[in-house]
Amino acid sequence: MIAVIGHIEVDPRAAERLRQLGMVLECATRAEPGCLHYAIGFDAQVAGRAWLSELWDDDGALQAHFETPHMKEFRARLAALPGLAVDATRYRVEAGEVLVRRGHRT
pLDDT, tens digit, for every residue of 26-84? Predict the structure, then answer.
């Protein structure tokens, strides 16, 4: 599996636009083959910062994600936002274990 953790920052005045773009991307990405988890969360303390967490079956699924029309559109629109900074790291996941599962929903 492949995990991606990172964040995107924009000028706080562009935070709502980032939120809108992120919601569209998140919905489309979750339907992709090989996507096990995809979430964009917004920082409660830093206006204009969004946190990314992703889990993919393999490198092929992640690379295919980068080529989707919705990802290309997101990147193009994101690039136009003021104060843009992006930091994301890919991790190879060898194993995982449940830490807590209570009242689990699918």
Answer: 999 999 999 999 999 999 999 999 999 999 999 999 999 999 999 999 999 999 999 99
**H or E segment at 50?**
strand 49-56
Angstrom distance (rounded) from CA 21 to CA 83: 16
Residues 52/12, Cβ–Cβ less than 8 Å: no
pTM, 2 dp: 0.89
Closest CA to 65 of 90, 28, 24, 39: 28
Instruction: Dig out the tokens for 28 from the structure.
Output: 């489309």
Counting Cα atoms < 13 Å in the Cβ hemisphere of 49 gives 10
